[in-house]
Amino acid sequence: MRSNVDPQKIEQLMKALGREARGSGSIYFTGGASALLIGWRSSTVDIDIRLDPEPLGIFQAIAKLKQELDINIELASPQDFLPPLPEWRDRSIFIGKYGEISFYHYDFTAQALAKISRGYNRDIDDVKAMYEQKLFSLEKLRDCFEAIAPELIRFPSLNPEILRNRVKKFIEHCESTSEREK
User: Fold this and answer.
1) 81 burial via Cβ count (<10 Å: 0-12, 13-18, 19+)
2) Which of 108, 16, 7, 4 is nearest to 46 (CA)?
3) Which residues are within 8 A (CB) of 6 and not within 5 positions of it... i.e. 6 or more apart?
4) Greater pLDDT, 4 or 144
5) What are the backbone dihedrals phi and psi of residue 127, each rounded to the nearest 5 degrees, phi first?
6) What is the pLDDT of residue 42?
7) Which residues of 54-63 are buried (b: 16+ CB within 10 A; e: fewer)?
8) pTM reported for the whole predicted model
9) Where are the domains of the chain?
10) Residues 175, 138 contacting (CB under 8 angstroms)
11) Mean of the pLDDT values across residues 154-163?
12) DSSP secondary structure of the chain
């Protein structure tokens, strides 16, 4: 069992990966790592990343740093659960560059859809926090869902109608909450 991760450990990880990798590339943080860096959570168990493009030597660096920093690093992103959203790279938010590695927050619209599809309470709380921080818009959430809906058949564990209803319910909740606050 590894220790919980805090924002300082993520900073250490980014610097070390930038130092250790032998080539350029991009690393996209998702889930708890984004939550920590932006500040709506104080800790997480895993650091979920997507490599795109994959930096040379990154797996050797990850293996070494998992031990040195006592952290779990998982290769996981919304693309493992849903079809890639159109223009997800353009909506990903740049964090910084260490060595030849650029670090980003993976597209928050995609993160929101992936978390809504899982539907766990913590995931829905994360989506609410992302929305409150204006990291995605309801319109973009709706549009991106509609853009990937025809491809959901490629993900047999998903029921497209259940996901459509969850997205609709989340949007309606946010719209009714903002109406009450006016």
Assistant:
1) middle
2) 4
3) 36, 42, 43
4) 144
5) -65, -40
6) 86
7) ebeebeebbe
8) 0.94
9) 7-107, 110-181
10) yes
11) 94
12) -PPPB-HHHHHHHHHHHHHH-SS-EEEEEETHHHHHHHTS-S-BSEEEEEESSPPTTHHHHHHHHHHHHT-EEEE--GGGTSPPPTTHHHHSEEEEEETTEEEEE--HHHHHHHHHHH--HHHHHHHHHHHHTTSS-HHHHHHHHHHHGGGGGG-TT--HHHHHHHHHHHHHHHHHHHHHH-
Which residue type sits at 119? Answer: G
pLDDT digits (tens, 9 = 90+) for 32-49: 999 999 999 888 889 999
Q: At what angle do helices 108-118 and 138-148 cross, to 10 degrees?
A: 70
Can you read off the two tokens belonging to residue 7? 């924002």
The half-sphere exposure of 133 on its side-chain side, counting CA atoms within 13 A, is 17
The reported pLDDT for the residue numbered 115 is 96
Length of the chain: 182
- Residue 18 CA to residue 98 CA, distance in Å, equals 5
